[in-house]
Sequence to fold (143 residues):
Amino acid sequence: PDVSPREERKLQQLKENFNQLTEERNRLAGKVEALNRDREKQKHQREATLERVMNANARLLEEKDKLEKEKGRISDLYQQTMAALGAASQGASAHRVESVAEEGQRETLATLRAAIEEKSDLLRKSEQEGDSLRHRLRRLAMA
Fold:
């Protein structure tokens, strides 16, 4: 059958519209695919960051427990030393105990005090790092 020029023009216009829409659909599909890849990449980055933070937090908690045990041990040693010094000073003046105490005991006492101070500083630092990590975890969880 013969096709009129008008119908042929209309058919040509419909083919062009179809081609344009197909190109638009393919362009949008490519854009959606790129956005999905980017979203997945960001998701993996967030998961990796969260994993690193959780590992660091676990390590800090272990270190905190270790420092707490060390603090308890040093505290016990300090109390024993103070009790020994107290028992030695019963019936004697504090000045006399100082003069009678051996130099090694004074050094031991000074060493213990320095160790206590060092461990206390380490514990405070670890607690601050733990607080900072907990804050970062909360921020990551909200993101």
The CA atoms of residues 4 and 10 lie 10 Å apart.
